[in-house]
Design brief:
The chain is of the alpha/beta class. Helix content is 32%, strand content 22%. The chain binds coenzyme A (COA) and adenosine monophosphate.
């Protein structure tokens, strides 16, 4: 059935559509209630169903005779090592780790923080939590100790799982040092921290930390526990408009149904085929399409530690595709821009046989038409831009490759909404805009299965963040338009969130760090265009009266401070001292005006501005930065 027909089928009878989709999942108790909208505006799905996520991702494939098939292929461009783990081995590893968690007293509903690099043990850890109903919260390794501490205090984990080190080009990431610092900063203390020792940099564990191998030694393997479909599977913190990250909660039943549906209909990838999401388990793409999605579908999932370039060269992706017969590649446009920059002629692509590949999916930031065209020409496969967010857990708008005939591509558009998502464009008064008119992208309620039912520990924040600007709709935070053929064009965030190399960051978090410097009176951080990373942050800082620091030294201190507080992933390298910031008469910094100026757009002088001459002062600087 073609995508438009599928969409119409969903429209006609949403309950039936999702009841049918739910049959692809193994339930301990099949749901009779499909969607409950009384308890969350987003909806709770399959509320009386019972199931286990780990069973669906692992055990059922062993039972169905896929035990010997590779479930997880781990390739490290950093160590040169690779490892293939079959579904039977995965079951063994996960059951053992789940047994160890249980022996430690971890129970269903308890939180476990996973702060780990891209090693198979991180996947075992996620699945082991799911097996016993514990809620995992993975924290991306590129975040600094303070960010980890904030998440520890919010999630209140009973246990922390980590590794001795991560491996970045030219640098060993001292995970243990970061964990120690985070535990000093956090008020909440997990009862235990368990460490996977990597031979590249084993850590001195002392009495406070437990070696992973000792943790799992001699334990009784644990069987999957039957969980309510609405039981939280994980919390994934993401950047919002404030300095405090939002704990996106993911349920179990709806998520599994959505992922299973998407593997088939969006990604056109089936059991036995190899799916590679070149992302990190610390992001939503990693949760949905390195771990749960491909495994639920019985695919082989490829887990990659390394970079698209420099580890060792721009041919790494293509050699992996050839070696592991990857059918579907999912990455961020920035990764392909990096490859194109080093190998515009596609010399490395020609050296590898990429004929196993049937499509490349892009997300995380706007896919610029040049890159999309270049990749399509080089690989001769469809290049599919698709739009989604941590909150939705799976794509909102995509060209559904598995829905029969692919849609014609319109460069700059992620194509059509996926069944389950009603996408509208509203103006600031909440009025629906017509074709090609740009405004706020909102989603109809309830949201489909897989999307967040609420925020962890913060139902009020959930309402405030997503349902107040446009009551009755989910506000995505992205702006864009829909054309006369229903194609959706995403034009970027309209709030204070930025996407740096496909990594989502809050400018508020960066501002909080800058404002903590004793010389800073006030500051603003905005995203400015960057040829490689799409967007990078730019800091504008006003100093306190009487500060006489050397400007260059001060800027170096500020850059180091953001790296120390937020993490290297922020890519905060640009900072300027300015005499004043543009503000409203009530004292609010006019960030949208700064963003527009840096983007080179004509900016009408906001009527609420306190002193318009400040815009003239900043004009030259902002023009020169992007
Ligand atoms: N642990 C510790 N540090 C990390 C890290 C991790 N897991 N991931 C990134 N970092 C660090 C990097 O080492 C780098 O530090 P540096 O300032 O010392 O060099 C910094 O964070 C920025 O990293 P990154 O954004 O990866 O930039 P890069 O310059 O190293 O590489 C690209 C540029 C384009 C190759 C890279 O950003 C990339 O591959 N992006 C794809 C992103 C992606 O897959 N996003 C997921 C959405 S689908
Ligand atoms: P994250 O929650 O980290 O997945 O980031 C979500 C944000 O990334 C979205 O709100 C968008 O701003 C951006 N994004 C994701 N996919 C796309 C896309 N295909 N085109 C444009 N922006 C995208």
């Amino acid at each position: 059935m073609k995508q438009r027909e599928l969409y119409a089928k969903w429209r006609q009878d949403p309950e039936r559509f999702w009841r049918d989709a739910a049959q692809a999942i193994s339930w301990d108790q099949s749901p009779t209630i499909i969607c409950d909208t009384d308890t969350s505006p987003a909806g709770h799905w399959f509320t009386d169903g019972q199931l286990n996520a780990c069973y669906n991702a692992v055990d059922r494939h062993v039972e169905a005779g896929r035990g010997e098939q590779a479930a997880l292929v781990h390739v490290s461009a950093m160590t040169g090592a690779s490892e293939s783990i079959s579904f039977s081995q995965l079951q063994h590893e996960v059951a053992r780790l789940a047994g160890a968690l249980r022996a430690q007293g971890v129970q269903a509903g308890d939180r476990v923080i996973i702060y780990m690099p891209m090693v198979p043990q991180a996947v075992y850890a996620m699945l082991a939590c799911a097996r016993i109903g514990a809620i995992h919260s993975v924290v991306f390794g590129g975040f600094a100790a303070r960010e980890l501490a904030v998440r520890i205090d919010d999630a209140q984990p009973v246990l922390l799982l980590t590794a001795s080190c991560g491996l970045e080009p030219g640098r060993v990431v001292d995970y243990m040092g970061l964990v120690r610092r985070a535990l000093e900063l956090a008020e909440h203390k997990p009862s235990k921290t368990v460490v996977w020792q990597r031979p590249q940099a084993p850590a001195d564990l002392g009495a406070d930390y437990m070696d992973w191998l000792d943790f799992i030694d001699g334990v009784e393997p644990a069987a999957p526990v039957s969980m309510a479909a609405t039981a939280p599977l994980y919390i994934l913190y993401t950047s919002g408009t404030t300095g405090k990250p939002k704990g996106v909660l993911r349920d179990t039943g709806g998520y599994l149904v959505a992922l299973s549906w998407s593997m088939h209909h969006v990604y056109d990838t089936a059991a036995g085929e190899c799916f590679w999401a070149a992302s990190d388990i610390g992001w939503v793409v990693g949760h949905s399409y390195i771990v749960y999605g491909p495994l639920i579908a019985g695919c082989t999932t490829l887990m990659f530690e390394g970079k698209p370039v420099g580890t060792p060269d721009a041919g790494t992706f293509w050699r992996i595709i050839e070696q592991y017969q990857v059918k579907t590649l999912f990455t961020a446009p920035t990764a392909l821009r990096a490859i194109k920059r080093e190998d515009a002629a596609g010399r490395f692509i020609k050296e590898s046989d990429t004929s196993s590949l049937s499509a490349v999916f892009l997300a995380g930031e706007r896919a610029d038409p040049d890159t999309v065209q270049w990749v399509g020409e080089q690989l001769s496969v469809p290049v599919i831009d698709h739009w989604w967010q941590t909150e939705t857990g799976w794509p909102i708008v995509a060209n559904c490759l598995g829905a029969g005939e692919p849609l014609p591509v319109k460069l700059g558009s992620a194509s059509l909404p996926i069944p389950g998502f009603e996408v509208r464009v509203l103006n600031e008064l909440g009025q629906t805009l017509g074709s090609n008119e740009q405004g706020d992208l909102v989603l109809g309620l309830p949201l489909p299965p897989g999307c967040l039912p609420t925020l962890w520990n913060d139902p009020t924040g959930f309402e405030a963040a997503y349902f107040t600007t446009h009551p009755g709709w989910y506000n995505s935070g992205d702006g864009g338009y829909i054309d006369e053929d229903d194609y959706v064009f995403i034009m970027g965030r309209v709030d204070d969130v930025i996407n740096v190399a496909g990594h989502r960051l809050s400018t508020g978090e960066l501002e909080q760090s800058l404002a903590g410097h004793s010389a800073v009176a006030e500051c603003a951080v905005i995203g400015v265009a960057d040829g490689l990373k799409g967007t990078v942050p730019l800091g504008l800082v006003v100093l306190k009266a009487g500060v006489t620091h050397d400007a260059q030294i001060l800027i170096a201190e500020l850059i180091a401070k953001v790296r120390e507080d937020v993490g290297p992933v922020a890519s905060f390298h640009r900072c300027h001292i300015v005499p004043r910031l543009p503000k409203t008469r009530s004292g609010k910094v006019l960030r949208a005006t700064l963003r527009a100026m840096a983007a080179g757009r004509e900016v009408p002088v906001p009527p609420t501005i306190e002193d318009a001459s400040v815009l003239d002062e900043l004009q030259g600087l902002l023009r020169s930065v992007s």
